[in-house]
Design brief:
- With 101 residues, this protein is mainly α.
- It is 55% helix and 0% strand.
- Helix 1 packs antiparallel against helix 2.
- The protein starts with 23 loop residues before the first helix and ends in a 12-residue tail after the last helix.
- The chain crosses the membrane at residues 27-47, 53-71.
- Keywords: Membrane, Transmembrane, Transmembrane helix.
- This is PrgI family protein.
Length: 101
């Protein structure tokens, strides 16, 4: 028997990702989360331009980074959907030492 060896490159999972790191779904969710926050900061902060930019960046950069990375390698909407499903379907388990038959 003659077996051929195939080598899988280290970056085989990078296909379809933005900058090789972020899934397109996470990028879209990041825009959905950060653009309204950016608008609110720019329009309603009663500061001069430089402090307004600093405060806006202090809010937008962590928010955008969190949305890009996601939670447990899932996008925010997928994680929120799983959490919501778990929250609605959880039950309280009680054991009193007896089994009803």
């Amino acid at each position: 028997m003659n077996y051929e060896t195939y080598y899988i490159p280290a970056n085989f999972t990078d296909a379809g990702r933005v900058l090789g790191l972020f899934a397109p779904r996470n990028l879209v969710e990041t825009l959905i989360v950060t653009l309204p926050a950016l608008y609110l900061c720019i329009m309603f902060l009663p500061l001069a331009l430089t402090p307004k930019i600093i405060v806006t960046l202090a809010i937008i950069v962590p928010l955008g980074g969190f949305a890009l990375v996601g939670i447990s390698d899932d996008s925010l909407s997928r994680w929120l959907s799983a959490w919501w499903h778990w929250r609605r379907s959880r039950r309280l388990i009680l054991f009193r030492g007896e089994v009803k038959r």
